[in-house]
Amino acid sequence: MHLGRLWIEQHIPHKGAMCLLDEVISWDAARICCRSDSHRAPDHPLRQHGRLGAACGIEYAAQAMAVHGALVAASSPLTSAMAAGARAAARSPRGYLASVREVRIEVERLDDLPGSLLARAERIAGGEHTVLYHFTVLSAERPLLSGRASIVMAAQP
To answer: What b/e readout covers 96-112, taking b as 16+ CB neighbours within 10 angstroms?
Structure first.
């Protein structure tokens, strides 16, 4: 099953131009890799002064983490056993980027890169309320930025 932009928009809070990812390349219970070409769009919502700074790559990685959370939740035995109409209620709680640490930025900007961006994230720790990921954003196998991100899950009503 191809997991493209439409699937991504249906499973993360970001919609329209703010949904930065084009497709899921691969994923498993611990990792995800997503592809995007939106960094070259002249109307990119994160551009400032005609440029897309490299720190905006953190948002690409954060969206990959959100997609990962949705995929893991959808593949859980409880969710898999539910009818398709009831799956929305079983999605993972909304996560919020709480902190980024050890960020290494290797380039000044993203909008001048000719190739696709790959946003990779690996879950390295976590529980019910928080998740810690290591992330890397690359283009043409060249690391552009990397770091760790803490995600805090919203309380369920």
So the answer is: ebeebeebebebebbbe
Which one is predicted more confidently, 112 or 94?
A: 112
Domains of the chain are: 5-153 (3.10.129.10)
For the entire predicted model, the pTM comes to 0.89
Tell me the CA distances in angstroms from 7 to 43, 84, 86, 130, 139, one per residue in order. Answer: 22, 14, 17, 24, 23
Q: Is the pLDDT of residue 45 over 80?
A: yes
Alpha-helical regions (H) of the chain: 5-11, 57-75, 77-81, 87-90
Q: What whole-number distance in Å separates Cα of residue 13 and Cα of residue 42? A: 23
Give residue for tokens 């539910």.
82
Average pLDDT, the chain: 89
